[in-house]
Specification:
The protein has four helices and three strands. The chain has helices spanning about 1-30, 45-55, 85-90, 105-110; strands at about 35-40, 60-65, 70-75. A hairpin with a 5-residue loop joins strand 2 and strand 3 (about 70-75). Helix 2 crosses helix 3. The longest helix has about 30 residues, at about 1-30. It starts with a helix and ends in a 10-residue tail after the last helix. Bound molecules: copper (II) ion. Copper (II) ion binds near residues 42, 43, 47, 113 and 114.
Length: about 120
């Protein structure tokens, strides 16, 4: 029982310190950058590479697309780039976002495994 309590305390300490860290970190990010999650259509790891490459424009510090959830986490500097502009780049690479649809030409250029439209 003593051991369990010790482990619990240790875990709690780690969680609390991690939380404090992320709060200070978020506070810092609030000043310079904005974090946004955007649904982006795609299928596989190849899509992931393509989407992230397209999203990494000037002013974007992080672009990470989740293959399972199809959600792109975008961290960017709003004074340097607009979310819409990043989404346009992604659409131009062949992947739909809620606001911008990929043109037929860009979509048709995708490899077979990446064709997400049914
Ligand atoms: Cu793909």
């Amino acid at each position: 029982m003593k051991k369990i309590k010790f482990i619990f305390t240790a875990v709690l300490a780690v969680v609390l310190s991690a939380n404090t860290f992320s709060q200070t970190h978020d506070h810092f990010k609030m000043i310079a950058t904005k974090t946004e999650t955007i649904k982006v259509s795609g299928n596989c790891e190849m899509c992931k590479a393509r989407i992230e490459k397209a999203a990494k424009v000037e002013g974007v510090s992080k672009a990470e697309w989740n293959v399972k959830t199809k959600v792109l986490t975008l961290v960017y500097n709003p004074s340097k780039v607009k979310s819409d502009d990043v989404q346009k780049k992604i659409a131009a690479a062949g992947h739909d976002t809620p606001k911008f649809k990929a043109g037929d030409k860009a979509y048709n250029a995708l490899p077979g495994c990446c064709k997400y439209r049914k």
